[in-house]
């Protein structure tokens, strides 16, 4: 940090403070983790300075032999780890991976007379009329994804996201009584809507998904099944999600981030069948420019780590810890969406404490417990204030915490939420954002959180 401080001390201070903050609090953000020193060091080096547009062995830049090695190894490790035919390791993020996947399916599936006429990959051979026709053909396709308010991600067709603008979209949700995906209702919607792409996967659904069933539905209506396993890739890699719950044998295309439960660097990846490989590899120049060579190196290291038996023990512990946390909250009277968990996350409905998700998030943060507010299905408080907080165990499990600590953390969370109340607004009505909490109680909890 001294080297950084010599150039811009405020950045060095922010980095140092971030390390302090992370050490002094309990990180329960379900999408975060702690990457290993090997992953961090593979990322912080001179590969960052290299341009390498193209794919390994087919570059638009000279001097790419080391990047070729890095990209080839990252893809080899990914294929072996997940048992996939093909791995494309360039996407800079989960959103890039999803965009790459959407366009791969469009270019594979949409019959485009304009492209057929051109019969070449040289875009200069397309006329203006061809382009207009192509825009029309590609722009009128349908996507069916999980709704944001029942746990889907914004890239699964949410209107303000590009996916909701690129596609005519519709969403499926969960059964209001159980909180579980209603496969029969999903099948009905798919039959009626007949999407080109059926997207499975989630950011805030605390249960496993049956990908065999999803594929059956996709096949029945002629859709391509795309699974976004960003949240649970570590549980697939660690062989906790197998059989019907492993997306790779069932979906034609699988996307992921690499930095969540998979514990790699911040980035994305696309896995696919052999038939889709050539379309997926067109991510550059379709969606991406130069790949982040240093991040691909860190992905290779993370995948190599995930192939070790220790990672399987880690993935099992992540799920055991989430269950212990859920049981700890339930035992103390907490309310959980779906009544529990069988993955790495718990979605607590905090309305029973008389709080919004925003108040719960803020009170917990000030008490050293970092979570994020999240809508619950049919949330009366909307997506900004919300009625829930999402809790995840990947990061604390990396730190070595186990079931006993999870139970204690459940007790700390329950204590904070019981002691917190909405602050009155100037008009006297309870605020949806501000809260009050006894300072000595808050500081006592924060001290215990730091000790843990
Ligand atoms: N897909 C899912 C299911 C996610 O939960 C996320 C991130 O939260 C993303 C995609 C996007 O990943 P990124 O933030 O790397 O773009």
Automatic annotation (TrEMBL):
Q: Catalysed reaction per UniProt?
A: (6R)-5,10-methylene-5,6,7,8-tetrahydrofolate + glycine + H2O = (6S)-5,6,7,8-tetrahydrofolate + L-serine
Query: Secretion signal: which residues?
Result: none
- Give the sites modified to N6-(pyridoxal phosphate)lysine: 260
Q: Where is this chain primarily localised?
A: cytoplasm
Cofactor(s) recorded in Swiss-Prot or TrEMBL:
pyridoxal 5'-phosphate
Query: Which top-level enzyme class is recorded in the Swiss-Prot or TrEMBL entry?
Result: transferase
Cross-referenced InterPro entries, in alphabetical order?
A: PyrdxlP-dep_Trfase, PyrdxlP-dep_Trfase_major, PyrdxlP-dep_Trfase_small, Ser_HO-MeTrfase, Ser_HO-MeTrfase-like, Ser_HO-MeTrfase_PLP_BS, SHMT-like_dom
Enumerate the spans annotated as Serine hydroxymethyltransferase-like domain.
7-108, 141-413
User: One GO molecular-function annotation for this sequence?
Assistant: methyltransferase activity
A Pfam family that this protein carries is: SHMT
Protein function: Catalyzes the reversible interconversion of serine and glycine with tetrahydrofolate (THF) serving as the one-carbon carrier. This reaction serves as the major source of one-carbon groups required for the biosynthesis of purines, thymidylate, methionine, and other important biomolecules. Also exhibits THF-independent aldolase activity toward beta-hydroxyamino acids, producing glycine and aldehydes, via a retro-aldol mechanism.
Q: Self-association or partners: how does it assemble?
A: Homodimer.
The protein, known as: Serine hydroxymethyltransferase
């Amino acid at each position: 940090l001294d080297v950084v401080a010599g150039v811009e001390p405020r950045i060095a201070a922010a980095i140092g403070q971030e390390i302090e903050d992370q050490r002094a609090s309990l990180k329960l953000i379900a999408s975060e983790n702690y990457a290993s020193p090997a992953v961090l060091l593979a990322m912080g080096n001179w590969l960052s300075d290299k341009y390498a547009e193209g794919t390994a062995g087919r570059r638009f830049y000279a001097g790419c032999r080391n990047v070729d090695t890095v990209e080839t190894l990252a893809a080899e490790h990914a294929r072996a780890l997940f048992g996939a035919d093909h791995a494309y390791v360039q996407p800079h993020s989960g959103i890039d991976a999803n965009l790459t996947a959407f366009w791969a399916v469009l270019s594979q599936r949409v019959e485009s007379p304009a492209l057929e006429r051109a019969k070449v990959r040289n875009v200069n051979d397309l006329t203006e009329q061809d382009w207009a026709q192509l825009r029309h053909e590609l722009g009128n396709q349908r996507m069916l994804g999980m709704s944001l308010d029942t746990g889907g991600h914004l890239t699964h067709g949410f209107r303000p996201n590009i996916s909701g603008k690129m596609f005519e979209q519709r969403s499926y949700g969960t059964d209001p009584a159980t909180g579980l995906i209603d496969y029969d209702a999903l099948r009905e919607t798919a039959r009626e809507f007949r999407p080109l792409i059926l997207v499975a996967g989630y950011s805030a659904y605390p249960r496993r998904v049956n990908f065999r069933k999803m594929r059956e539905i996709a096949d029945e209506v002629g859709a391509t099944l795309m699974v976004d396993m960003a949240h649970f890739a570590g549980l697939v890699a660690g062989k906790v999600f197998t059989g019907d719950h492993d997306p790779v044998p069932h979906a034609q295309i699988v996307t992921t981030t690499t930095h969540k439960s998979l514990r790699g660097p911040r980035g994305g990846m696309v896995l696919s069948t052999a038939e889709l490989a050539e379309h997926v590899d067109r991510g550059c120049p379709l969606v991406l420019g130069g790949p982040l060579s240093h991040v691909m190196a860190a992905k290779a290291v993370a995948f190599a780590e995930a192939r070790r038996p220790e990672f399987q023990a880690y993935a099992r512990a992540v799920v055991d810890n989430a269950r212990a946390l859920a049981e700890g909250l339930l035992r103390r009277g907490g309310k959980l969406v779906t009544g529990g968990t069988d993955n790495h996350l718990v979605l607590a409905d905090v309305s029973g404490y008389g709080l919004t998700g925003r108040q719960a998030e803020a009170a917990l943060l000030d008490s050293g417990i970092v979570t994020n507010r999240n809508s619950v299905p049919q949330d009366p408080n909307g997506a900004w204030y919300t009625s829930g907080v999402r809790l995840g165990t990947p990061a604390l499990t990396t730190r070595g915490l186990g079931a006993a600590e999870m139970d204690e953390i459940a007790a700390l969370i329950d204590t904070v939420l019981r002691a917190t109340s909405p602050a009155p607004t100037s008009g006297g009505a309870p605020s949806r954002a501000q809260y009050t909490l006894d300072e000595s109680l808050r500081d006592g909890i924060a001290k215990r959180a730091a000790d843990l």
